[in-house]
Amino acid sequence: MIYRKINDFEFSIIGMGTWKTFDVISPNDITLRKNIIENCVASGTNLIDSSPMYGESEKVVGQTTTKFKGEFKIATKVWTRGEAQGLDQIERSFDLLETDFIHLLQIHNLVDWETHLPTLRRLKEEKRIGLIGVSCMNPDDYPLLVRIMETENIDSIQIPYNVKNKLVEEDVLKICRDLRIGVLAMEPLNKGKIVGNLNAHIESQPALIELGLETWAQAWLAWVVSNPIITSAIPATSKPARILENSKSAVILDQDARELVEFLSSSS
Questions:
Q1: Which strands, in side-by-side order, build the sheet including 182-186?
Q2: I need a surface site. Which of 94, 132, 210, 225 has the fewest CB within 10 A?
Q3: Rounded distance, CA 262 to CA 254, Å?
């Protein structure tokens, strides 16, 4: 695994999202998530991203990481309006995640960001959280995202970024580079839509196979994290084996290999 820093915190360049996949309640499903967590530890995948928006996700993350608290960097979000409601939700996140320290706390989709930023700054000063971030899903909100990055001294952002969605390359990522703001890439596989007409396994592409890439999903993840501005890509999965497969994507493609992946993806 390869790691990149946001300030003093090291994150695996392949992390794990939990939207939908950790929103489970049955004992069998929770056991399967424990297996996912064990594979994260085995592969060096140390970043888990969650949110109150994701149903039971925070609770399941808390339950399944009980034995491995020191192995993970936990990211979650505040997703409500109002100062009191925001603080209540954050305190609930601490409880559900079964932790007294959250490495990265983000304002989900910029909801009531002006209200929540002072709360996050206070929590950071109190050393209850490590980093302050914002997430932004809607391209129409990117101008506001840029303004926040340029004026509010945040540590990271979370945005969609993949080989077929490169909108943030124009402005957002360049500003992150210049201001040294970390970037979590959500939807690195475009919600699975990138597959298109390509076979799952790479064939007749020795330049990629020699790097240890076996599937196109791995190639697309590698394409994302080969951008040095990206801190971590956070694909979600409900399959333990997928964690081990995803971890093989932690390779840095040179410019030729990256352009090859981009070209081949354009035909799918």
A1: 16-17, 47-49, 73-78, 102-107, 129-135, 156-160, 182-186, 232-233
A2: 210
A3: 12
101: tokens are: 């320290």
Residue 249 near residue 45, CB atoms below 8 Å:
no
The pair of three-digit structure tokens given for residue 16, joined into one six-digit string: 């794990």
pLDDT digits (tens, 9 = 90+) for 168-207: 998 999 999 999 999 999 999 987 666 554 556 777 788 8
Residue 199's pLDDT is: 57
- Residue 249 near residue 218 (C-beta atoms within 8 A): yes
Residue 133 backbone dihedrals phi, psi, to 5 degrees? -140, 170
Calpha distance 127→223 (Å, rounded): 35
The token pair that represents 239 in the structure block: 């399959």
Hey, where are the domains in the chain?
A: 3-187+229-238
Contacts (Cβ under 8 Å, ≥6 apart) of 149: 157, 172, 175, 176, 179, 181
Please state the separation of Cα 119 from the chain's center in Å.
22
CB count within 10 Å of CB 92 equals 13
CATH topology of domain 3-187+229-238: TIM Barrel (3.20.20)
DSSP conformational letter for 162:
B
Q: How many CB atoms lie within 10 A of CB 121?
A: 15
Instruction: Give the strand pairing for 129-135 and 182-186.
Output: unpaired
C-alpha torsion angle, residues 221, 174, 105, 30 (rounded to 10):
-10
Q: What is the distance between the alpha carbons of residues 94 and 78, in angstroms, rounded to a whole number?
A: 11
Cβ atoms of residues 93 and 80 within 8 Å = no
Kindly give the parts of the chain with pLDDT less than 70: 192-200, 267-268
